[in-house]
Amino acid sequence: MIKVEIYTTPTCPYCHAAKALLNDKGVSYDEITVLDPELRAAMTQRAHGRRTVPQIFVGTTHVGGYDDLAALDRQGRLEPLLEGAA
């Protein structure tokens, strides 16, 4: 599977939901906690100005937040993306 990165904060319910969805699919991911202003700034730049968490990346593809991740899953497009086929 392709590398997955998720930018989070400890108390964000959408972050917990995104991680649960990925865990349910058996996907390993790198979690980057953005309590440090420099890490948040790097996330914001990488996420094309989005400042909210979570911000999820699958390989070089910016998925977006939890709602975007869940929508891809409902549409059957998440697994091909995770396999690097999208």
TrEMBL record:
Extract the Pfam families matched here: Glutaredoxin
- Family annotation (InterPro entries): GLR_AS, Glutaredoxin, Glutaredoxin_subgr, GRX_bact, Thioredoxin-like_sf
UniProt-recorded Gene Ontology molecular function terms:
glutathione disulfide oxidoreductase activity; protein-disulfide reductase activity
Query: Glutaredoxin domain spans which residues?
Result: 4-63
Which key words are in the record?
Answer: Cytoplasm, Disulfide bond, Electron transport, Redox-active center, Transport
Q: Name one GO biological process term.
A: cell redox homeostasis
Q: Does the keyword Cell membrane apply?
A: no
Q: Which family does it belong to?
A: Belongs to the glutaredoxin family.
Note the PANTHER family from the entry: GLUTAREDOXIN-2, MITOCHONDRIAL (PTHR46679:SF1), PTHR46679
As for what it does, the entry says: Has a glutathione-disulfide oxidoreductase activity in the presence of NADPH and glutathione reductase. Reduces low molecular weight disulfides and proteins.
Q: Which NCBIfam families match?
A: GRX_bact
This protein's name: Glutaredoxin
**What is the taxonomic lineage of the source species?**
Bacteria, Pseudomonadati, Pseudomonadota, Alphaproteobacteria, Hyphomicrobiales
